[in-house]
Amino acid sequence: MKNQTVLSSISLLLILMASPFALAFASTETDDDFLNIREATVDADSDEMSAFLKTHGHIPTNGDGGAFGYGLLTSEGLDAVVVSTTHAGVLDSEEQDDANDPVWHNHFVTLGDDSVNCGDDPAVKSITFESPGQIRIQDENADLTQIPSSFSGTDALNQDDLTIAPGTDVDDVVSFKLSPQFNDNNELEAVCVTDIQPADNVVSDNDDNSNNNNDDNTNSNSGNSASQGIGQVESNKQ
Fold first, then answer.
1. What long-range pairs does 111-119 form, CB within 8 A, spacing at least 24?
2. Which residues, 6+ apart, have CB-to-CB distance to 12 below 8 Å?
């Protein structure tokens, strides 16, 4: 009984010590089937693209799923990734009312290496404060529309001018989680993109022969891209 009391006290202490920001990124869902994309249908021309994603589970819109999202990987690689994401804890989008708003929003992001904070996982290096295109979540589906081939706006990390041009040549569609890294002062040091999963099947409406079945092809290249952005400092709506 004494040992149980000690263990309970230690557990409570660890909970109290946990960063409130880190907790905001944690999922309360017991089933993450919404991270498994059953099929993604992509439609694109030279100026813009859209993608309709069907997942294996109900997609949370209230923050219960933690920090996660979906990404469109184009021929531009990690230099220009389109993501739709939800998270609470950090204000990095003009679509959010405040830092705790888990509203879904889009970003164009650049990913890169940060071995100190993220190990082998990619890290967010630049990210639009604006939300290019539209994102609509309903039940098990995510509908990304009017995604431009290029966007100029503001970098949510440092408020500098930023242009990211992913183009419209989509190579893959993925889901991912976000893992924020904090220093001893609970200041955000980095955001790592983890648990990257390619869609089971990607279909292009522009080319009937471009179906891409990923059921047995979870390659490491997909594991080196996609993210949602999280700014290191809160940005005011502009």
1. 111/78, 111/81, 111/193, 111/224, 111/225, 111/226, 111/227, 112/78, 114/190, 114/192, 117/181, 117/189, 117/190, 117/192, 118/179, 118/181, 118/190, 118/192, 118/193, 119/192
2. none
Strand order in the sheet with 134-138: 134-138, 141-148, 48-55, 37-44, 201-204, 212-213
| Mean confidence (pLDDT) of the chain | 81
Q: Which residue has the higher pLDDT, 86 or 19?
A: 86
Q: Is the pLDDT of residue 104 over 70?
A: yes
- DSSP-derived 3-state class of residue 198: strand
Domain locations in the chain as residue ranges? 2-224
Cross-strand pairs, 44? 49
CA triplet 167, 172, 176: central angle to 5 degrees? Answer: 105
- Quote the tokens at residue 28: 């309360």
Give the tokens for residue 147: 């995604």
Q: Say what percent of the chain tops pLDDT 70.
A: 74
